[in-house]
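Students often ask why we bother encoding 3D structure as a string. The short answer is that it lets us treat folding as translation between two languages. Here is a chain of 497 residues written in the first language.
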Amino acid sequence: MLRLENIIIPKLESEPSSISYWWDGKWYTRSDMLSLVNNCENVLRNAGFSRGQRLVVMLRNSPLIPALSLAVWKLGGTFCPLNEKAGLESLTGTLDLIKPFAVITEHEIPELSKLWPCLTCSLDSVSLPSFTGKTQPPESEDLAVIFATSGTTGLPKAVPLTHENLRSNCESTLAMIPSVSSSDTFLTVLPNFHSFGYTVTTIMPLTIGAKTATAPSFLPPAATIRAISEGKVDVMFVVPAIMSFLLMSVEKGKLAPEVLSRIRIICTGGDKLNPNLHKMSLKLLGRDIMEGYGLTETSPVICVNHDCETQKTGSIGPVLPGFEYKLKDREGNETSDKEGVLWVRGASVTPGYLHAPEITAERFDSEGFLNTGDYVRLETHDGEEFVYILDRVTDIIIVGGFNVYPQEVEKVLAEHPAVHQAVVVGMPHDINGQIPKAYIQLEDGAEANDRDIIRFAKERLAHFKVPRSVEFVEEFPLSGTGKILRRVLRERAAAEK
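And here it is in the second language, the structure alphabet:
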């Protein structure tokens, strides 16, 4: 198995004086990154870090993230990025599961330091402070990274990914977007505790020797805009919420369109792309946005469009090379229909959940295919099969026995001239079981009432798909990765019954 440090370190060493990354207003060389890696490696080794150990890191984006990753891998360990804002109960449960050698945080968390060796570190640090860790039972040296992910049981769940998982996903993603090259500069703004941000915007550019321009986080957005502008970003992978904010900033005159229009590749993932963003991008920037899709369990990319010229609007693109896939009905039976739940198998798929064989058994079938939990439709265009997500299986609304796919309803509602974005969830109903409820975010300065929205939907949708209730919101609840929290909206709708 070819390990990631054995791919990345030689590229850094090959041309040490070449530019490697932009950070906080300055460009740094590959030699600077190597120095940071070596400093981190020495401190970890002196702290007692050894093969099979796990280092938990709760830092925002900075050059320390790739440096610590490479240092940990050189020592035969596993890098574990967590969200410092996940909440003490969640963090404690996840740490108990991972059993780290040490925990690195940006801010002191006294409750955790009582349980685990902890050290605080500035994002601008050129090395780590000296410390002593605590040796834990070793895991496999094949594990490159462990991500925490939410589960339906409320218990902590962790996804281990191997060096082969990440290497394969980077190679397959780059093969699907052939216009990406080693001369490009990637924007690194997505949180590193999410596999989309970590793999695609931090590790993938390193594997081909591309440059990065890094912002600690998207908010406040000034740092991101500065990174895009001063870093002369060519490739930008972001979640739709970030793209929406940037485009609205252009529309309001707060951001010059040239800052974004010079970016050659803009691709979103992590959540569905609001159809109106395609129109906004074409209008304001003169170019379109690509869309892709993936899961933490798949390292993460499963599908992505090749480019804006061949993409099919509404599709997440073809499945990456290296994946096998099949469709099953909701009862788990394979189907020859072009609609069904997507199951995948391949070199990018996690070997299973960490110390959770029962969860692994629930998500994988006997042939090793992973249940993505997404209900999709397949369509062939120009000899290539494109995937369209109809909805998360858990999001499908069943109205009197009929399936209602929220994304279909949302797409129709988004065509209303006053609607910027719509989110539709199921609301409990005594007779029909569920009915659709729409949460609507209006365009700036636009006006509409619930009767307008319902009338518009009735003219375009079957009666059982029409929202029976409409609520207007200023903004949607978002996760730490910028994904709309439908669960929160479902709970709000259920509480109103």
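Translate back mentally: Residues 30-46 form the longest helix (17 residues). Keep this in mind for the problem set.
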